[in-house]
## 1
Amino acid sequence: MVEYYRLKVMRIGGSPHAVAAGVAVGVISAWTPFLGFHVLFAIPIAYLLGGSMIAAAIGTTFANPITCPIIWPLTWKIGATILGHDPAGHDNLDLGQLFHHLDITQLWRPILEPMVIGAIPPGLISGAIFYAGTYWAVRSFRNRRMERLTARAGMLKSA
């Protein structure tokens, strides 16, 4: 599955910067707690930054059933620490009851606010790592591809 997404990213049109910026924006957006809206956040931001909107959509797959159980508690703890909340003070939250009523005002302070704030540091760090890795990978992939095509063209000329 990872190989599939890697190849899709390598073949996206645009400069290595545009592809890398798109992936980075998608990964940063994936750290937010707004599952289902990551693409809606990533695409306009990628557009504004001159990044690939397709790469941004692919980058949002960073939030998936394997990573979300790690991302959510991590962002909540980081956010609670940054905001100065005592994480132990929210151990008695009845999440089922809060989600049953779907009252965003009751969810914001104890859950969503710490997760949004807590998503910023790991989002920026992982976004920078994904930007650098994607930029290097796309540039290398395209250079190798150009070398192969040049070599093939040279063989056709000499034949």
## 2
Amino acid sequence: MTDLRTIGLIGAGHIGSQLARLAVAHGYDVVISNSRGPETLSSLVAELGLKACAATPAEAAKAGDIVVVTVPLKNYRAVPVEPLAGKIVIDTNNYYPQRDGRIPELDNESTTTAELLQAHLPTSKVVKGFNHIYAAALTTDNQPSGTKNRRALAIAGDDAGAKAVVTRLFDEFGFDTVDAGPLREGWRIQRDTPGYGPRRTAEELRRDLAAATRYAHQ
């Protein structure tokens, strides 16, 4: 991954700030953004050091070799489209109706959260990831490659090359990867599914994905 050295972050909440810490710890440059403006990120940037800077979402999208979208789902349409053309975009979003309001196509299960983002970013390569781990665990559960019973995280995506890149990034950050399939299978790791939240090895996570049911059948 030597050619991919900058990670852009659109969203700097719990997951975004933890991913920034992970990325800097592994030698990446990070460009962090939120909806309130770069000046509100000064303390986080100061903590992260010289490999981090704050920017607008459009600037973070443009700067990142890989870009993580980690905003409340209700705000996904605010993600800049043009600067993300052709790029790998990791989507951490989850649907919480009490926060996001009702989204009919998710309620009737005609689509998934990541497919919504992919439709908004038609020329980007969206990969679902980092959406089923508590933020704090990102920097406590990570372990070196080859560690016995290492924690695994699921991904879903329609582009095999993008998924391969994200799998290498996960390994670098300290996690095994389980491929749940195309974006439309991303629902298998959404809220209220067996694998959402708890620490799982790859074998356990595969079982959880297989056991997941759609909301309509719960």
## 3
Amino acid sequence: MAQPTQSLTKPHLPVTINTDSLAERVRGMITFRRSTVASVASDYGATLEAAVVVGAVGIATGIGTSAAVMPTLGGVLAGWVGLAAAIWLMANRFLGTPTSRESFMPLLRTVGYAQAPAALSLLAFIWGFGPMISTLGFAWSLLVTIFAVRYTAQFGYGRTSVMVIAGGIAVNVIGFFLTLMTGIDPQVW
């Protein structure tokens, strides 16, 4: 008798987005819930949701800073992927241990969701308090990113903080040269 063959395809990625799940995950991420980080890291479908979160941050940043929305959106998306790639590279090559091998996609998802507090930059146009609120949003986003990466990569807070801050610096330095050449500014925090 013939044996059934097993498919080696990747899990089906949903094209639809559950807004209730997205809102609950954003709420869980910005309130530093480990269960939310684990849920986002393990859900293949959360990649599109993370892109939506980052896209909303890009639109809010463009509106709040009175910048062109489309280039700002492109810059925020490029910064998101660049930051996740820099963290992944450091986690696997420089700061990892022989037994730690991190996958890129869980980091991409959790870093994307961690950008949610940066949407407070929508209020940056308000005279006086706007820039302070925007700065608070970016600082909050940095802390959520460190929290999310810490529980995704399973490193301590010291090593995770170094990876996240060094990744942000790397993206900003590369972004400076990319901006000079193409006009696209990858934005992180």
## 4
Amino acid sequence: MEVQELREKDIDALNAEITALLAAQFRLRMQRASGQLGQPHQFKSIRRDIARIKTIINEKSAASASGEKA
């Protein structure tokens, strides 16, 4: 996921992205528990995408609290 794409979205869209990524992370955990996980590297990328989105949400909320344009 490109950072520039994420910065163009509003907070509601970013929250929807986080929800989708958390669901994907849950599915990966279930696959791992049942022994069907084929691509374990996806854990790392999903975890980093979630952190990236949360960082952008915090930046946008801090900017709106200080009165700047996000």
